Amino acid sequence: MVIDPITGNKYSTESRVSKSAWLTDEEDPVIDKLNQRLSDVTGLDMATAESLQVANYGIGGQYEPHFDSKLVDDPDLAHKGGRIATILIYMSDVKLGGSTVFPDIGADLKPQKGSAVVWYNILRNGLEDDRTLHAACPVFVGSKWVANKWVRARGQEFRRRCSLSPTE
Ligand SMILES: O=C(O)CCC(=O)C(=O)O
Ligand SMILES: [Fe+2]
């Protein structure tokens, strides 16, 4: 929902304003190299991960608060499991705006070309981690390019130990 600053009227807007494309593992050898590097730095298996999603936000581009793990009508859920982790790679700097924010933990990540952020969406006990609510703030000046890799739970059983604790 957006509020017009002059009239005060509310109107709805797209929850995500960006353009995106999926790059499959077969697309180019550089994707293979990237997958290997992501596996090396996270210790996670990329074989069951989703294809790389590249997104571009122009001025005003944004993504409202959401959980990456909340998948609806996902045909892969049964055999690949949920989105256990997100790897978000910044492919550009942004002159003004475009931060990734986690409101519940007070984190504000400013895009920096060549950097990446990794987080687990699902706790070791299998429950979704509510602290992972996040959003992409509007781009005010410049253009924001990111690549997303969503790692699935299946395949990580011996890489990330599970837990019986109700809180972790
Ligand atoms: O672009 C960002 O900063 C966040 C993107 C995101 O949360 C998503 O694509 O799921
Ligand atoms: Fe997200």
From TrEMBL:
The keyword Transferase does not apply. Pfam families: 2OG-FeII_Oxy_3. Its cofactor is L-ascorbate. It comes from the Eukaryota. InterPro entries: Oxoglu/Fe-dep_dioxygenase_dom, P4HA-like, Pro_4_hyd_alph, Pro_4_hyd_alph_FE2OG_OXY. Keywords: Dioxygenase, Iron, Metal-binding, Oxidoreductase, Vitamin C. Residues 48-153 form the Fe2OG dioxygenase domain. GO terms for cellular component: endoplasmic reticulum. GO terms for molecular function: iron ion binding; L-ascorbic acid binding; procollagen-proline 4-dioxygenase activity. This is Prolyl 4-hydroxylase subunit alpha-1. It comes from Clupea harengus.
